[in-house]
Write a structure and sequence with these properties.
Layout: E1 2-7, H1 15-22, E2 30-35, E3 42-50, H2 53-63, E4 67-68, E5 71-72, E6 74-77, H3 105-108
Antiparallel strand pairs: 1-3, 1-6, 2-3, 4-5
Length: 119
């Protein structure tokens, strides 16, 4: 069973369009188009499962770069999903900022200075 990633799709592409596109290369198990949770619109990529590895390889070779709906498809074998950290953007921090520069551990061992009262 091969799971194929299909990227750079037209937002109007449907599951039946993808099934028809992959059907000449072999049996198509499941088609899943990624949809935005908030808007319900397609996100421009999908996953297609093909039970036979040889048929999947033929589909990748033939469809990668093919123009469909005015866009050149990107078709390759899907990579496993990376585990997510506790934060919504993963454990790396994201955003281009270097969040690993300082940590609370640096300050835990240092003596705490008394605070001035606020009146």
């Amino acid at each position: 069973m091969k799971n194929l990633f299909v990227g750079n799709m037209s937002f109007k592409t449907t599951e039946s369009d993808l099934t028809a596109l992959f059907k000449p290369f072999g049996q198509v198990g499941r088609v899943h188009i990624a949809v935005d949770r908030e808007t319900g619109r397609a996100r421009g990529f999908a996953f297609v499962e093909m039970p036979n590895d040889e048929e999947a390889a033929k589909a990748i070779k033939a469809l990668d770069g093919m123009e469909v709906g005015g866009r050149n498809l990107k078709v390759n074998e899907a990579r496993p999903r990376e585990e997510r950290g506790s934060s919504p953007r993963g454990s790396s921090g994201g955003g281009g900022r270097d969040r690993g520069k300082f940590s609370n551990e640096d300050y835990r061992e240092s003596a705490r200075q008394p605070r001035e009262p606020r009146w």
